[in-house]
Specification:
- The chain is mainly alpha-helical.
- It is built from 13 helices and three strands, in the order αααααααβββαααααα.
- It is about 50% helix and about 5% strand.
- β2 and β3 form a beta hairpin.
- α6 crosses α10.
- The longest helix is centred in the N-terminal third of the chain and has 20 residues.
Length: about 325
């Protein structure tokens, strides 16, 4: 249950509308965010603003990095006024200043797109992976390859995969309920027949399948952590001769999600599906809020870029913005 909204002054109604709007999209605008918006509202009033406008000087004063303040705290204040300013501008207000965050500059991100050969090597190494003998490590040695195959074949976020409990699974129909995804968005996904068999074999090796138990857990029953999963993945990448990128960082588990999105679109194009229909389906399957998020999310290699965008151009010439071609480092 959300708490009552309490804003004051000329921004009162629009702040309430903004919160309702964001919640309608599924964003978690609860106590913390409402408190921050109320703090921003009070700041604007102290600056003597008596009508709906946000001058540049006031905007910049609100987002400036304070002494001994972490950049993450500053980023939260920036996100509050940036989001609200964009909302006001979208409603036709003209005297509203907005800008990028100069304290934490935006960086264009390019995911790592694994080749088919790299995927084969990853699973080959995962199948022989063994974790260290500690109380909280994998329940059994098959967990690593099952987890990686699930991420690869469904595009799940690592946090979503590790949150799956046995009660969320309908193995007979190959369905999994994601009950608390990002921004508290729930959805159902259906796995492929091959992934269904993998899950069935994996569950068959487990000595305990308590309804409330986690699908991926340590020997003590606790949910396996994303950080530990990443460490295991890095070891597997080393074994598969897939090394750190020029940035000094490994490819991420999250890059499986990008690869899934690309291949899903490829299959839709090959089958002649109308992308106006296909993109909303992919959007819902991934747990995105809007098609805009899905469009931004899909980063394409050069060969796939041509295949997909040439087909999509017949539906909407500007469907995909120009994106930097991803190359392997």
């Amino acid at each position: 249950m959300y708490q009552e909204l309490k804003f004051e002054g000329p921004f009162k109604d629009e702040l309430e509308n903004f919160v309702v709007f964001k919640r309608s999209l599924g964003y978690d605008y609860g106590k913390t965010m409402v408190y921050l918006l109320a703090k921003m509202n009070k700041f604007l009033l102290i600056q003597g603003i008596a009508e709906i406008k946000i001058p540049e000087s006031v905007y910049m004063q609100w987002i400036r990095l304070k002494e001994s303040e972490s950049t993450s705290t500053q980023e939260k204040r920036y996100n509050a006024i940036h989001g609200f300013a964009r909302f006001l501008i979208s409603k036709g207000y003209t005297d509203i200043y907005d800008t990028e965050n100069h304290v934490i500059p935006r960086k264009e991100f390019t995911p790592y797109i694994f080749t088919s050969d790299e995927i084969t090597r990853i699973f080959k190494c995962a199948d022989i992976y063994r974790s260290e003998n500690k109380p909280t490590v994998f329940f059994n040695s098959s967990m690593v390859p099952v987890l990686l195959r699930l991420l690869y074949s469904t595009g799940l976020r690592i946090s979503e995969a590790l949150s799956i409990r046995f009660r969320d699974m309908d193995l007979e129909n190959g369905a999994i309920a994601i009950t608390d995804g990002k921004n508290h968005v729930g959805r159902n996904i259906v796995v492929s027949p091959s992934m269904k068999r993998v899950l069935g074999d994996y569950i068959g090796t487990m000595t305990s399948c308590d309804t409330d138990g986690f699908l991926f857990c340590g020997r003590d029953g606790r949910a396996y952590t994303a950080n530990t999963a990443r460490k295991a993945f890095h070891r597997i990448l080393d074994d598969a001769a897939i090394y750190k990128r020029s940035s000094g960082k490994y490819p991420r588990l999250h890059d499986f999600r990008h690869l899934f999105s690309i291949r899903a679109l490829e299959q839709m194009v090959e089958k002649g599906y109308d992308l106006y229909t296909s993109l909303p389906i992919l959007c819902k399957y991934l747990g995105h809020k809007s098609i805009i998020e899905t469009e931004y999310y899909v980063r394409l290699t050069k060969s796939r870029f041509l295949q997909i965008t040439q087909t999509s151009s017949s539906y909407a010439p500007n469907l995909f913005p120009f994106m930097e071609v991803c190359t392997h480092d």
